[in-house]
Design goal:
It is built from 5 helices and 26 strands. By secondary structure, the chain is mainly beta. The N terminus is likely disordered.
Length: about 425
């Protein structure tokens, strides 16, 4: 390096020079002139050039700054710092759509960039992406896919796509009817299970009408129930006692509509179940399964009638069935020789003279049943009261002819029978 008057540097082709402990190498002087815009001028000959040192350093600094700026722009353009959010709802009901698929595709070649699913509130938030042009695809089963053009700018770190409404993609089909036959009887071990929906009974019919239609079941005129030759001693409701001493209460007062299944089986006597000692005195049971829909509130039945000669009849029953408890109350009153709504009143015994016949019987009855079951204990009971008042009268006149003679006879008989039962 030469020290000249104007602090110029002499640069020759392929020559190195050192200044301030920095070494520069310029392969060609023409390269400097074309690419760096240095003010080159000849000093001595065409093979030797001089340049101002300050101007050279300033222009090199400008060149370096331009290169750094361009590199910074490229880095910023590729930085993923923009969050895309939005909501998805149904277009008809405006209800939020949960687990809808949200995808972000880069344009122009629709390359998948990122994606997410909507939350329980229908909102989505995509992972951060770089600025650019995209297509936001929102889809869900049963709805048409929505495509939304999105242009993201590096000047905004958040982009709200707003509310995306999905339209139903409905294809109407003809009505489909599925039919199947319900097995009327299922035998499970020693238990016979009857499905009530397999047997047709009149609307509003009581349990007695259903039992008469069950295979192997018979109901006598006195109300005695037998299944496969075994007399039914008790009727349970969901495994709980229901007026245990009189099966006719259930037979004549529980509507078929509330019963889903009827199970017939044998079980040990109360004493055997308490003591654990089998006494051989098994009893046949009918166990009614109440429909789930019938365990919500109270179930009742009411009958009433009035006829000629001041004849009347009325009766009602009210039930509440739960999974662990039952409660029932029933009552009746009549003067039509019906022994009671539950038929536990007059048993044909009473006071009277000379057998006056059946006459007219006035009867009243009332019964209450309850049962409660816990994990360790099952309690229950029932109280029944019956009253009957039978009043009968008979009057007869006779005339007997014997030859030319005749005889007359006249008789009157009366009977009054009063009975009160409480159990």
């Amino acid at each position: 390096m030469e020290n000249v008057e104007s602090w110029k540097l002499k640069i020759e082709t392929g020559e190195e020079f050192r200044t301030n402990e920095i070494t520069f190498h310029f392969p060609l002087s023409t390269f400097l002139q074309m690419h760096y815009g240095l003010n080159l001028f000849p000093l001595i000959s065409s093979n030797r050039y001089y340049v101002n040192e300050n101007k050279l350093m300033r222009k090199l600094s400008i060149l370096l700054g331009v290169l750094l700026w361009d590199g910074t722009q490229v880095v910023f353009a590729q930085t993923k710092n923009i969050t895309v959010t939005g909501n998805v709802v149904e277009s008809d009901t405006k209800q939020v759509v949960e687990q809808a698929s949200v995808r972000l595709l880069a344009l122009p070649d629709s390359v998948f960039v990122t994606g997410a699913t909507t939350s329980s509130k229908g909102r989505f938030t995509l992972p951060k992406v770089a600025a650019g042009k995209y297509v936001l695809k929102v889809s869900y089963i049963g709805f048409m896919t929505e495509d939304i053009f999105v242009q993201l700018s590096s000047s905004a770190s958040n982009y709200n796509a707003g509310t995306v409404s999905l339209r139903p993609n409905v294809i109407l089909l003809d009505e489909a009817v599925v039919t199947a036959e319900v097995p009327p009887v299922i035998i499970n071990g020693d238990t016979i299970e009857y499905n009530t929906s397999a047997y047709r009974v009149p609307e509003g019919a009581m349990l007695e009408e259903l039992v008469k239609k069950l295979p192997g079941a018979e109901v006598s005129s006195e109300g005695k129930v037998t299944i496969n030759g075994k007399e039914i001693k008790r009727i349970l409701v969901d495994g709980k006692e229901f007026f245990s001493d009189d099966p006719n209460v259930s037979m004549k007062n529980l509507p078929v509509e509330m019963v889903e299944k009827v199970k017939a089986y044998d079980r040990k006597s109360d004493m055997a179940r308490i003591t654990g000692i089998d006494d051989g005195d098994d009893e046949s049971i009918l166990d009614l399964t109440v429909k789930k829909g019938m365990k919500q509130g109270w179930i009742g039945n009411l009958i009433a009638g009035y006829g000629s000669q001041q004849r009347y009849e009325a009766g009602a029953i009210l039930n509440r069935f739960e999974d662990d408890a039952t409660f029932s109350i029933l009552g009746s009153v009549n003067n039509t020789n019906n022994k009671g709504f539950s038929e536990f009143g007059d048993a044909g015994q009473g006071l009277g003279n000379n057998n006056a016949g059946s006459g007219i019987t006035t009867a009243q009855s009332l019964g209450i049943n309850f049962a409660k079951e816990t994990k360790k204990l099952q309690i229950g009971g029932n109280v029944q009261y019956g009253h009957s008042d039978a009043d009968s009268r008979r009057e007869s006149s006779t005339e007997t002819f014997l030859g030319e003679q005749s005889s007359y006879g006249h008789s009157e008989n009366s009977s009054l029978r009063i009975r009160n039962d409480i159990r």
